């Protein structure tokens, strides 16, 4: 069950990114097709279809792996694993290629006076999404390398160079997983304005609270110093009066 959820998490993100980038790029690359088939339709069923494909593929791979493990045939497990890696490599490569192509399409598309508000919002939304997902797709580049190696291993099973590249790819994925959270945070703050404004307000509130706390702390210290000074002055007056009375009594 854990393997199924892990596969689903790995597969769903590039598939959903691929679908959104393709659909958002169609107004620039194929506007007639977009207006005819996608402009005035609900995209919910398409998202449901993408989720269904991802769940079906992951369930197929997971079930086949479990059955092969119970049967005791490691060769079938290896074939299933290679098939999953190749499938992931194809999806990640297609997603990366599509996002780069979409970035070029958006950058070359010039704004005109005939652009409606919906066109401007659509372009801004696609630009923000590209800024968000392109670094994440670049981080998934080792998965593409794994897909290529999975295709080459059956052809060259004894190649030491392929094993060396596989080890480098594993190390690259290991380090990419460490930096993934940091990259997601930077991309989110860079591309998505609501998150960026929320962080600004958060730091602004903390800064104002800190300055207020600092002012109140200084005020409290000043009041305490004044109290101590007044107490010291009062004590000195009492001491001086006592000494004066004692000297008068002795005289």
Automatic annotation (TrEMBL):
<feature type="transmembrane region" description="Helical">
    <location>
        <begin position="83"/>
        <end position="106"/>
    </location>
</feature>
<keyword id="KW-0812">Transmembrane</keyword>
<feature type="transmembrane region" description="Helical">
    <location>
        <begin position="47"/>
        <end position="71"/>
    </location>
</feature>
<feature type="transmembrane region" description="Helical">
    <location>
        <begin position="126"/>
        <end position="155"/>
    </location>
</feature>
<feature type="transmembrane region" description="Helical">
    <location>
        <begin position="15"/>
        <end position="35"/>
    </location>
</feature>
<feature type="transmembrane region" description="Helical">
    <location>
        <begin position="175"/>
        <end position="195"/>
    </location>
</feature>
<keyword id="KW-0472">Membrane</keyword>
<keyword id="KW-1133">Transmembrane helix</keyword>
<protein>
    <recommendedName>
        <fullName>G-protein coupled receptors family 1 profile domain-containing protein</fullName>
    </recommendedName>
</protein>
């Amino acid at each position: 069950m854990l393997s199924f959820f892990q596969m689903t998490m790995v597969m769903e993100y590039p598939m959903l990114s691929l679908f959104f980038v393709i659909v958002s790029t169609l107004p620039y690359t194929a506007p007639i097709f977009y207006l005819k088939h996608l402009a005035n339709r609900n995209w919910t069923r398409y998202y449901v279809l993408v989720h269904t494909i991802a769940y079906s593929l992951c369930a197929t791979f997971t079930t086949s792996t479990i059955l092969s493990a119970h049967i005791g045939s490691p060769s079938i497990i290896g074939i299933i694993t290679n098939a999953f890696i190749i499938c992931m490599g194809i999806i990640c490569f297609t997603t990366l290629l599509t996002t780069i192509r979409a970035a070029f399409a958006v950058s070359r598309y010039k704004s005109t006076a005939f652009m409606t508000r919906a066109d401007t919002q659509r372009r801004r939304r696609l630009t923000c999404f590209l800024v968000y997902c392109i670094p994440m797709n670049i981080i998934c580049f080792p998965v593409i390398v794994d897909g290529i190696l999975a295709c080459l291993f059956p052809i060259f099973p004894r190649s030491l160079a392929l094993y060396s590249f596989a080890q480098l790819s594993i190390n690259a994925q290991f380090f990419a997983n460490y930096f993934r959270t940091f990259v997601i945070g930077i991309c989110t703050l860079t591309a998505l304005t609501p998150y960026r404004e929320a962080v600004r307000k958060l730091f602004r509130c903390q800064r104002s609270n800190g300055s207020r706390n600092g002012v109140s702390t200084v005020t409290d210290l000043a009041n305490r110093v004044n109290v101590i000074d007044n107490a010291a002055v009062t004590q000195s007056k009492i001491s001086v009066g006592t000494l004066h009375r004692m000297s008068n009594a002795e005289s």
